[in-house]
Design a protein that fits this description.
Layout lengths: L1 H28 L4 E3 L8 E3 L7 H9 L8 H30 L1 E3 L6 H6 L10 H7 L23 E3 L3 H10 L5 E8 L6 H9 L4 E8 L2 E11 L2 H15 L5 E4 L2 H7 L3
C-alpha cells in the first residue's frame, strides 16, 4: 500500500513538472512582440527590436515645441520675393553704373524733363533739350508739341547722357566761347518747347535757362556757344529765317551760365 502511494505521488510530481514545462513553451511562443517567419519550411520566431530612448533624448523630445512646418508655397513665395528684390537692386546698381559711363536706362513713367531733373543726371528739368539733342534718333517717335518734355518714354531705352567729365573737357577745349543767341523769352514753357525742338532738329545746340526780371520768372531759349560775336550774329540771322522771328539778338554771358550750359 505504501509503495502504491509512493508511486502515485511520484507520478503526480512528474505530471506537475510536465505541465509546468508545457506552460512555459506556450508562454514563450505566444508572447507579443514576436511574429512567425514567412517561410513555409520552418517556423522561425523573429523578435522586433525595442528602441531604448536615453534620458538626454527624452528631454530633448519633450522640450521641443510642436511647431507645424511652414507651408512649401509660403517658403517658395518668400524665396521668389527675395530673388526679385535682389534683381531690382542689381538693376539699380547697373543703372547707376550706366549713368557714370554716360548712359541712362529709362524706367516706367520716365520723361525727358523727369530724367533731366534727376540728381544723378543733370538736376534740372529744363535741361531736357540736352538729352533730346543727344538722342534725337532714339526719341523720334515722340510727339513734337508742347507736351514733349513730359511725354512718357517707353521703359528700357538706353539714352546717351553727357557725363561731368565730358562737360569739363568741352569747356576746356573752347575757353573763349561766351557768345550766345537769345532766341525767345517767355514765362510759360509751352511757348518755348516747339521752337526748341525745331532748332535742335536743325542742328543747333539749344538750351533753356531762367532769369528773374523785375520780380518775375522768365525762361529763355538760347543757342550757343560761340567764340566771336560776328559768328553769333551770322548764325542769329539764320535762326530768324528758320523760326520767322525778327527780335533775335546776341549777347555775351558770364562764367556761371557758360559753366552750366557751355560744356554740352
Amino acid at each position: 500500500m505504501r509503495r502504491y502511494l509512493f508511486v502515485r505521488r511520484g507520478m503526480n510530481g512528474t505530471a506537475a513538472l510536465i505541465s509546468i514545462w508545457f506552460i512555459f513553451i506556450l508562454i514563450g511562443t505566444g508572447c507579443s512582440g514576436e511574429e512567425p517567419s514567412s517561410s513555409s519550411k520552418e517556423n522561425v520566431v523573429v523578435r522586433r527590436p525595442i528602441e531604448t530612448v536615453s534620458q538626454e533624448k527624452a528631454e530633448t523630445v519633450t522640450a521641443t515645441p510642436d511647431v507645424s512646418p511652414e507651408p512649401f508655397s509660403m517658403k517658395e513665395t518668400r524665396k521668389r520675393v527675395a530673388s526679385v528684390e535682389e534683381k531690382v537692386r542689381e538693376k539699380k546698381e547697373e543703372g547707376q553704373g550706366e549713368i557714370e559711363k554716360g548712359y541712362y536706362i529709362t524706367e516706367r513713367g520716365d520723361s525727358l524733363s523727369k530724367i533731366a531733373g534727376r540728381k544723378d543726371v543733370y538736376g534740372d528739368r529744363l535741361k531736357w533739350p540736352i538729352i533730346y539733342r543727344l538722342n534725337m534718333n532714339v526719341l523720334d517717335g515722340l510727339a513734337r508739341d508742347e507736351t514733349f518734355p513730359d511725354a512718357e518714354i517707353p521703359a528700357g531705352i538706353r539714352l546717351k547722357i553727357a557725363s561731368s567729365l565730358e562737360v569739363q573737357e568741352n569747356l576746356t577745349k573752347n575757353p573763349k566761347d561766351y557768345w550766345i543767341i537769345n532766341v525767345l523769352s517767355a514765362q510759360e514753357e509751352e511757348a518755348i518747347v516747339p521752337h526748341a525742338i525745331k532748332l535742335i532738329r536743325s542742328g543747333y545746340p539749344a538750351y533753356i535757362t531762367t532769369a528773374d526780371v523785375n520780380g518775375k520768372d522768365w525762361m529763355r531759349l538760347r543757342v550757343g556757344f560761340y567764340g566771336q560775336k560776328e559768328v553769333a550774329d551770322r548764325e542769329g540771322k539764320k535762326l530768324m529765317e528758320i523760326l520767322g522771328f525778327k527780335d533775335i539778338w546776341t549777347t555775351k554771358v558770364g562764367d556761371i551760365e557758360r559753366g552750366e550750359f557751355g560744356g554740352y
